[in-house]
Amino acid sequence: MKWSELSIHTTNEAIESVSNILHEAGASGVVIEDSDDFSKEREDQFGEIWSLNADDFPKDGVILKAYLPVNSFLGETVEAIKLAVNNLVTFDINIGANVVTISEVNEEEWATAWKKYYHPVKISQRFTIVPTWETYNPVSSDELIIELDPGMAFGTGTHPTTVMSLQALEKTVKTGERVIDIGTGSGVLAIGAALLGAREVHALDLDDIAVKAAGINVKLNKVQDRVTVAGGNLVDTIDEPGDVVVANILAEIIMSFTDDAFKVVKPGGHYITSGIISAKKNDVKEALEGSGFVIEDIMMMEDWVTIISKKPE
Ligand SMILES: C[S@@+](CC[C@H](N)C(=O)[O-])C[C@H]1O[C@@H](n2cnc3c(N)ncnc32)[C@H](O)[C@@H]1O
């Protein structure tokens, strides 16, 4: 998977609010390039020679940079960020030039750049996501740790769609159940389901890079005896239904296979759909109901929606 660098030229006053917006949109870290940092007089108490490169700093104001995965959500995520930044004006925050640019980052650049900003994060009552290169001591005995090296696959675990999917799994998965994870990305949801006690988890993805990354993360979390990862899509690869099926994919894709999903959920089982931008909530809800699902819970975080539905007994 490719990564994009989103940069926003704004003001000193807006740093905190814009950083918040970027974090909430799923950016793992924000780089701040402040014109004041270049022009400011530096103390050289230890004899250091300051040699900052003028090209790394804006002439005025502040540039905030964030890294976002290039995936089907990127367009909507960038639009949501722009809207939220524009809205700061209504709180009397000066957003300055407000020039937003987006560029692709090559894989090596990204591979080293983003790791600096990705740290352990508690994302639900029980789950904490820990990057493989960090050490972390659990705070409570029932805390579940997912170790992750997303590599180039989607799923650092901190995107609102992933966070709500894990919370929904926490609500639905019972010990000994079979779970199907459609569009596994880094494998984060499949691993989460196994840690919650699933007997068997079948994870699949159309993207070969995701299948590889998920396979590595599954081994890293020592759940390979319960989790299988395969390439392919729902229709071609599932022969045995699951008690819980989860799909964190774009709304349009979810709506295209609600009938197929209905066939692979056991009667009385749950179907968790995430990755739904709030404007599409009702369309997805109708598609699920049209295929026979009963809506049990609708979760919302920022501009994203996750729906837990049930297949009647
Ligand atoms: C938004 S990511 C979700 C990753 C991870 N499950 C999470 O929650 O963070 C969606 C993933 O679905 C995969 N995908 C998209 N359409 C698919 C389909 N029809 N069947 C299987 N995988 C699909 C993409 O390759 C991508 O890795």
Largest sheet: 7 strands, mixed
Task: Report the CATH architecture of the largest domain.
Answer: 3-Layer(aba) Sandwich
Strand coverage percent: 25-35%
- What's the total number of strands? 14
Cofactors, ions, other ligands: S-adenosylmethionine
Unreliable parts: 38-53
Q: Which class of secondary structure composition applies to the elements?
A: alpha/beta
Amino-to-carboxy terminus distance: 40 Å
Can you identify the CATH superfamily of the largest domain?
Answer: Vaccinia Virus protein VP39
Helix content: 25-40%
Shape: globular
Count of distinct structural domains:
2
- The number of helices is 11
Using only C-alpha atoms, the radius of gyration works out to 21 Å
Strand order of the largest sheet: 10-9-8-11-12-14-13
Order of helices and strands: EHEHEHEHEEEHEHEHEHEHHEHEE
**CATH class of the largest domain, anyone?**
Alpha Beta
CATH topology descriptor of the largest domain: Rossmann fold
Mean of the pLDDT scores?
84
Catalytic activity: L-lysyl-[protein] + 3 S-adenosyl-L-methionine = N(6),N(6),N(6)-trimethyl-L-lysyl-[protein] + 3 S-adenosyl-L-homocysteine + 3 H(+)
Binding site for S-adenosyl-L-methionine: 162, 183, 205, 248
Subcellular location: Cytoplasm
Protein name: Ribosomal protein L11 methyltransferase
